[in-house]
Design brief:
Radius of gyration: 23 Å
Strand content: under 5%
Helix content: over 70%
Number of helices: 4
Distance between the termini: 48 Å
Largest sheet: none
Shape: elongated
Structural class: mainly alpha
Length: about 90
Amino acid sequence: MPRTVATQSEVATPADLIEPFQPFRVALLVRMRKFLWLSSGLFSAASFAIPMIGVLAFGSTVGLGTSFLAAIISACLFGLASLLHFGPDEA
């Protein structure tokens, strides 16, 4: 016989109420880890590429040092995320 909401809440324990949210937490953490891996890699690539486009197209080196520093830091973060297997299993 199907239970109504009233009878479910009468026999529910706190663990029963929290349990449905556990897969959501795991999925959220996995998605956050992959987002960190992907965004750090893409930011690193863009931080190297965009200043080079400026140098090749306009011959300007303004802000090149700052972009290079951001790219190095992002590349280190991407390497750390890769070593900790934050990315997909197959790439």
